[in-house]
Amino acid sequence: MTAAVFFGCTFIAFGPAISLFLFTIAREPLRVIFLIAGAFFWLVSLLLASLVWFISVQISNKESTSQQKGLLIFGVVLSVLLQETFRFAYYKLLKKANEGLLALSQEETMPISIQQLAYVSGLGFGFMSGAFSVVNILADSVGPGTVGIHGDSQHYFLSSAFMTMAIILLHMFWGVIFFDGCEKQRWFVVAAVVVSHLVVSCLTFQNPQYVSSLVPTYIIMLSMGIWAFYTAGGSLRNLKLCLTCKDKDFLLANHRPR
Hints:
The chain is built from eight helices and no strands. The chain is mostly helical. Helix 1 (about 1-25) packs parallel to helix 5 (about 155-185) and helix 3 packs antiparallel against helix 4.
């Protein structure tokens, strides 16, 4: 049973993201490099947030429950703000890198479009975020112990897996929307990404009432997915052509900057 829980939750959490990686990124070395770099940027943001939070906890009153809860909320908000700051820094870095690649290339077009960079970097952020969100939880799923033995929800691992999947996909959508907002200098779009990220992160404070956190998170994920789809140039027509395999250029794996 524990093995079934472990592999089932892993498949739920990382299945869609791994599929996207294999079909759209794995065959392109340049995309793999940018994905790994995006994961590294997210990791650095987490390191800084963890360092600040650790110092804050050490100098606070550890016996004060309200103070520790406030520090937890502070840590979550700080982590989100640092993640989005590093996303912006990575966008600026990718712009410079892409200009350098264009200068070295003999072609007149960018070797990788800004939409592809946004998608790949967002997935890199998502992979690393998902790994830190669920790896320890999955490790605990093999026991010893029984979930819900003291009356708590027995769907802890399953809910964590679905939340992790949502966070990974959201990072991908946020990346596409965020980069487009920076490109067109629509700062309200960037602000919308930051606010939605804060909302999703704060929803986790509703746990163990998992319905209260999962349902709003998936509503936000669906909204951001539709927004990212149209931001990347999608439409109902080319979606229909893609689903019927009649428009190969719509697939990211076969897409070339035009």
